[in-house]
Amino acid sequence: MDIFSGLLHGFSVALQPANLFWCFVGCFLGTVVGILPGLGPAATIALLLPLTFKMDPASGIIMLAGIYYGAKYGGSTTSILLNIPGESSSVVTCIDGHAMARNGRAGPALGIAAIASFVAGSVGIILLTVLAPPVALFALQFSSPEYFALMCLGLALVVLLSGPSLIKGLLSLLLGLWLTSIGTDLFTAQSRFIFGQPQLLGGMDFVVIAIGVFAIAEVMASIDAGDKARMLPVPKGLRNLLPSWEELKACRFAFVNGSITGFVIGVLPGAGAAISSFIAYGIEKAFSKHPEKFGHGAPEGVAAPEGANNADSGGALVPLLTLGIPGGGTTAIMLSALVLWGVKPGPLLMTESPDVFWGLVASMYIGNVVLLILNLPMVPVFAQILRMPVHILFPIILGIALVGAYGVSGRLFDIGLLVGFGLLGYVMVKLKYPTPPLILGFVLGDAMERALRQSLTMSQGDLSILVRGWISATMLILAIVILLLPLFGRFNQARMKAIAEGG
Amino acid sequence: MSKDILRNGDVLSGAVLAALGVYIFMESRHWVYYGDDGPGPAFFPAWYGVAMVVLSLALMVTTIRNRTKAEATDWAGVRRALVAWAVFAICAASMFWLGFFVSFAILTFFTVAYVFRQPPLTGAIIAICAAAGFYVVFPFALSVQLPTGVFGF
User: Is 0.95 exceeded by the ipTM?
Assistant: First the structure.
């Protein structure tokens, strides 16, 4: 199936009434969680995952993806009106977005954020449509050593960019690898690390870990921080939300910059939307004729990062759908969702499950339009969500977490695990251990171990099989270089700066 | 070496993870490392267990050698979060006897009234409304099974 006919097929799937409905639900929920500080898309997708088990895979992934990219639209609202980022990817929007709002230009700031998100999000989806098929075709050459090397490279990048301490990132990853080993070894039926608990023979459920580490930990961290901020008023009426011609003209380069930077960074595992938005902002400021206006309400300072964090979604789906390699916590949960529905992400996804792949891609074009409508004329309505008191919101999140954990297997044992992982996630947040490497280690650990053991079985224990092919050799060398780079002062300074700015 | 550095979160967490690494390595010794068919179930855990020990020790040594001072902790905030977690844990445990709705109502009441210090009446109203709302959405509208206790719901 070529790209054009694939896309046509995708639209025939995405335009089915049920899928249109789930696309709208995903975009709506994404906007809501994007607006709410303290509840991220990873936590929301983890919470809602058990409810999608009975859904058709295409409908399920359309809804979950809607939450994923919808949250990036919604995140800017909180940044602009409250000076608190709704999402980590909207941190940089606070700088000029809130400054514009303080200058009485809250409406145009929200309008620019929505327009930039729409333009760059659309560019990201077009690039995903065009680039995913050749990447998948290339990945068909991969066998076990290449997959093992690819996972090493992906995990190395995630660890590199997940936090200031490389050691903590690696330890978090190893913890994830250990958690995924718990249960029965699929090669030999040997039970491992089950502590005498028969409930652990089947391994731990990803959903329980994700809800605990993301949702419960986020609630605890928010209760700990106890942030309170004053919201600036939202202008009513579409006319008051539209930017002036001069403001739009000033944002021309920012739309292009955000689209390309966001997509390229999005493809790299670990970098994430927070870093792409900061890089786009930095490029915008560096090339601006008026860099002194940045920080005081420059519209380009809103357009570039908001564009970048939305184009990032399209980029992040390229390795997820074509290689089966997620680049961050949210995409790791989406990978698990696909696996739970019996769909195998990777180079064969396009041919084996065209409804899922092309249906998702086509739904993103539709979702982007839905989000523009939700985030432009309806932003005053959504802003009212910020008035919801946390003492009502947090018990609801905890309740949904309990339902989600119990819904996976119907065992109270999983609720006990949820409680434990909630505490683990909070301790990790407090001690500045990054959580994405743990989740990625858990998601990829099983496949990584299988690829390594298959490779060594093929070579009768000869480790050189891992570097015999040029693809696996290149990826393993890159992974080693990535992990050694922080030892060099200048590179490490740049890395620390990127992480610090990325929040 | 001052006592403060030993109380540092990085040193403590490093020690816990080093112990976990040792446990993983020791446990893996009970299984086949390399068999006739290739690497056995001990192969992967043995390596990441060793890596965990090495990295944890590196974290501890770096922290102690650099005398890295931990950032000031807002203990009041930590206490709030831990109280919220304890309430959550107790209600989760009580679900076996009380069922989801009663436990969730208790969880909501304590979270609203004690963690967020709202009037008890507000807490009670929110608790009843939230539990009723969950009943309508999950078992009633979505047919999701939830734990039932001695009350049968």
Answer: no
pTM across the whole model: 0.80
DSSP string, A117-170: HHHHHHHHHHHHHHHHHHHHHHHTT--HHHHHHHHHHHHHHHHHHH-S-HHHHH
Longest dimension (CA), chain A: 70
Contact residues, A window 182-241, toward B, CB-based 8 Å cutoff: 185, 187-188, 190, 192-193, 216, 219-221, 223-226
Say yes or no for a CB contact (<8 Å) between A192 and B126.
no
Count of other CB atoms within 10 angstroms of residue A403: 25
Query: Each residue of A419-460: pLDDT tens digit?
Result: 999 999 999 999 999 888 898 888 888 889 999 999 999 988
Structural domain of B115: 75-141
User: CB distance B51–A406 less than 8 Å?
Assistant: no
Cβ(A73)–Cβ(A117) under 8 Å? Answer: yes
Asked whether residue B150 is domain-assigned, the answer is: no
Q: What is the pLDDT of residues A29-63, one digit of tens each?
A: 888 888 876 667 787 788 788 778 888 999 999 99
| Residue B147 is assigned to a structural domain of this protein | no
Cβ contact, residue pair A395, B55, below 8 Å: no
B80 and B137 both lie in a single domain: yes
Q: How many domains does chain A have?
A: 1
> Into how many domains does chain B fold?
2
Three-state secondary structure of A433-451: CCCHHHHHHHHHHHHHHHH
Look at the block and give the residue holding tokens 């304890």: B86
Structure tokens at A424: 């683990």
Residue range of the domain that includes A197: 3-501
Whether A65 and A310 have beta carbons less than 8 Å apart is answered as no
